[in-house]
Design goal:
A: alpha+beta; Ubiquitin-like (UB roll); DNA polymerase, domain 1; 5-stranded mixed β-sheet; 33% helix; B: 727 residues; alpha+beta; Aldehyde Oxidoreductase, domain 4; 3 domains; 7-stranded mixed β-sheet; globular
Amino acid sequence: MATTVDVNGRALKVNAAPDTPLLWVLRDELGMTGTKYGCGIAQCGACTVLIDGQAMRSCQMPVSAVGAAKVTTIEGLAGTHPLQEAWVKLDVPQCGYCQSGQIMSAVALLAQNAKPDDAAITAAMDGNICRCGAYQRIRAAIKDAAAAPVATSAKV
Amino acid sequence: MNKPLDSLSAPTRRSLLVGATVVGGALLVGCSIPDALSAGSKFKPGAFGPFLKLAADGTVTVVSKHIEFGQGNHAGLAAIVAEELDADWSKVVVEQAPANAKLYGTPMMFGMQGTGGSSAINSSWTLLRNAGAAARAMLVEAAAKTWGVPAAEIMVSNGIVSHASGKQSGFGPLVAEAAKITPPQAPKLKDPKTFALVGTDLVRRKDSAVKSNGTALYTQDVVLPEMLTAMVAHAPRFGATVKSFDDAAARKVPGVVAVHKIPTGVAVVAQSTWAAKQGRDALKVEWDETKAEKRSSAQMLTAFKNLASGKTPAPEKNGWAAFESKGDAAKAAAGSGALDIAYDFPYLAHATMEPMNCVAMVGKGPPRLVFGSQFPTLDQINTAKIATVLPGSVEIETLFAGGSFGRRANFASDYVSECVHIAKKVGGGRPVKLVWTREDDMRAGYFRPMVHHTVRVTTDAEGYPATWRHRIVSQSIMKGSPAGTPKLDDSAIEGTKGSPYLKATPVVDAQLLIADTGVPVLWWRSVGATHTAYVMEHTIDQLAKRAGKDPVAYRRALYQKAGAKRHIAVLDLAAEKAGWASPAQAGWTRGVAVHESFGSVVAQVAEVKMENGQPKVGRVVTAIDCGTAISPDQIAAQMEGGTCYGLSAAMYGAITLTDGVVDQGNFDTYRVLRNSEAPTVETHILPSTNPPTGVGEPGTPVIGPAVANAILALTGKPTLSQPFVKA
């Protein structure tokens, strides 16, 4: 069944069965492998993407449920988002596998709360597991990015 | 893991050699192990040796013989070369070495190529300093020839070769000429006092950008022409095998290409991950459980306890084995007023963020693997056995891996072998990506062993240990090694063995008993120290409490008796930075712990409070002596991450079995530490001029006892089993 999904501002044709999770459509069919598989049951956050600006777990969202909503993946940030720059500045990643999801959750947080305090940060980020335990640098990088001027080039 | 293959004996060397030669049918008698293991390899290093490539555009490529799966070793390895080469750090990149034991093996690991035991930096220190210094000398000589000036007058700094006459050049234009020069065998190394890069905050990760923009390549992300994706139905109980299966429904799933029986189960091969999963889930498999482990973990623990107490006699073969024992054992068993305690530790899953996976091509030319290989030589040997080729001919392209924590270093190359079996069935060299779901990963085993300790300590008039009786019952990680289970498995006792507290105790009777179950076990970040550090450090606080002494002062006195100077130094540094001498901030209680592992000594002071009936950890002050610090920021990162990994296990980690079936399957049932529960770790590095020692693992085992000691101070009660928070 062919359908169209809006990913990072482009309307992309998709042939996957309607019940296929968005995660596997992004990865296997559209070749966007920045979004990761970690648990498949919305427990770890590695697959986090933005759906109309909200952080959602793509492993639990059938592609048929996306409809006309705008999907933003890590590829859509183009490496220039203030959060990505803060991630690099503070050497946040270790193994790095969870970081796409961490960054997407952080993007949604800052879009709603430009100056989050510690409690707001951990509340927004508790759905994203990092087994390397880069948590304190994730908190620091979010604060660093929140203090930075908002780059107009980053589309979210 | 701690020197994973270090304790293997001479017969193991032979069996490895046999493993390396018989499969190919070639007779390689008389070869060294690295020669035998690399036979068939077509790889040839370039003019600057196996660890370094210089390009005409000035790029300096450091070739890492170790995988990067989070530890930050690539930053450190690159810095060692760059320092001796006087390279421009911004032009340095890191590349994974191909699989070749002769060029990239580690003597400590029997000449095999692999990453483990927190040894990447330590085992590369001298090699890479020499590689950098040799290339520097070659560039200098090339410049001297080109410019017609004496080599001794040439300077190199920050990637620029220069002469007082005003002549100067980047590395790039000199590379072709330098490549013609024979590398010096013993190049002059720098005086560490003159290091400009090593030990500074200029040493940063090289992979942060690609790991922050989604382009870092993991096995999960590999896409190759004609590639198929496979998932495997595994038996629900360890030791079961396929009796029969019905794949009619599986084959009807659109996208499913084939179904194959393999030694570990039934594989469904498909055109996409989702099709493979749906196909796998549609299989009906009947298992032969004749040889399966059907006990619950609670029954296994009872069996361990009965062995420790003597209620069940030890088997005659492989019975109790003594270590660190001295004085009259009867005395250690007797005496009134002893502290008499026992500790239990559950199985633990590694639960890496990226579940196990592999890409293999078999049946056209030499077998080729593309994945995050932690032990390329083992993976070559195991692949060679299945594909019947020479191990050295197996090509491996090593990618980033989404964590390992010991999981990917496996004597049987379990999931790699599984992928190779499937790729062999598919044949024709067609790429097959094996994907494990989280549930596959968590239930397939290779856990940190379940362990039981009993400790009985009597004290002298001043409250210090007079006699120490210690029993450990554990499975052996070495069971799967070519040598089989040793009677005294170091990986089960390290940390109790070598403890300064035992050194300071006049009478010691310490013994290990290797018990067995059908559950496969493996190294798990910091290995033996995951339990021994807890037992030693929490016992010490209980003894200090009985003696009415301050835990820091009590430790210092024992370290003085033992001559453990490095322990004293980190203890004092952590205590000072944590403000141990003054009260903790209101509402928080401090706990301290110190442990040596992988050549490094770590002390931590943790601030803890009880929140909703469970411990909440705030600030954790860490002091580490890891010899020469290469990348202070990455050392701090490993202390931060190692602490979270250890705290996650101590607080929540447990794999349990009911009637032989693993109860947990995903992060909803195997709870792990989340951001709001992660402490803020402050790292202080002890200045040192010794060679660098481990960093990846030593931060893991200390937090558990530090928190337990804070709880002891707060409630007066010891915590004798993990996890602290029961499911």
